[in-house]
TrEMBL record:
InterPro entries: 2Fe-2S-bd (IPR002888), 2Fe-2S-bd_dom_sf (IPR036884), 2Fe-2S_ferredoxin-like_sf (IPR036010), 2Fe-2S_ferredoxin-type (IPR001041), 2Fe2S_fd_BS (IPR006058), Beta-grasp_dom_sf (IPR012675), Diverse_Oxidoreductases (IPR051452). The gene is hcrC_2. The keyword Cytoplasm does not apply. CDD domains: fer2. SUPFAM superfamilies: 2Fe-2S ferredoxin-like, CO dehydrogenase ISP C-domain like. One of its GO terms (molecular function) is metal ion binding. This is 4-hydroxybenzoyl-CoA reductase subunit gamma. Keywords: 2Fe-2S, Iron, Iron-sulfur, Metal-binding, Oxidoreductase. Its EC number is 1.3.7.9.
Length: 167
């Protein structure tokens, strides 16, 4: 099968990959670039496990052609630990998920983190539980019952809103 050369921006870096022209962004991330944090669940837009950000907006990588992401900024869960808000390679959302035990099998977690991060960045203040529910409406979790996920996202927004101790 003929492959096309793709030039992409992923987590702030320029990368190149050869892949069939019909491949999705999710396939290129996982099977050409070894970025396997974004999960392949339903592969048809139902579960949200593949959620990444393109130009800061959450998108379903399983429904996005890789060629459509060329020239845009793609961010995956692997890039969260490198964001300015991160500390010791850990974004406040990741820290909160850990403290609240918000992941069980963890399959949904990368997609949820990317949807939640987009919400917190857009809102820029402590979020309400309803805002979190709405932002995560497209991310399914079969394990947790969502309560701890919502707790963790609200907690992370409080951490981000708190003044930083620079000492
Ligand atoms: S794998 Fe993309 S929505 Fe389920
Ligand atoms: S923790 Fe298992 S699907 Fe969400």
């Amino acid at each position: 099968m003929a492959e096309a050369l793709l030039s992409l921006r992923i987590n702030g870096e320029s990368v190149h990959a050869a892949a069939p022209a019909h491949w999705t962004l999710l396939e290129v991330l996982r099977y050409r670039l070894d970025l396997i944090g974004s999960k392949q669940g339903c592969d048809k837009g139902d579960c949200g496990a593949c959620t990444v950000q393109v130009d800061g907006e959450p998108v379903l990588a399983c429904l996005t052609l890789a060629c459509a992401a060329a020239g845009r900024e793609v961010r995956t869960v692997e890039g969260l630990g490198w964001s300015p808000e991160a500390s010791n390679g850990c974004h406040p959302l990741q820290d909160a998920f850990d403290r609240w035990d918000a992941a069980q099998c963890g399959f949904c977690t990368p997609g949820i983190l990317m949807s939640a991060e987009a919400l917190l960045r857009k809102v820029g203040r402590v979020v309400t539980r309803d805002e979190v529910r709405e932002a995560l409406a497209g991310n399914l979790c079969r394990c947790t019952g969502y309560t701890k996920i919502i707790d963790a996202v609200v907690d992370a927004s409080e951490m981000l809103a708190a003044p930083r101790d620079e000492t």
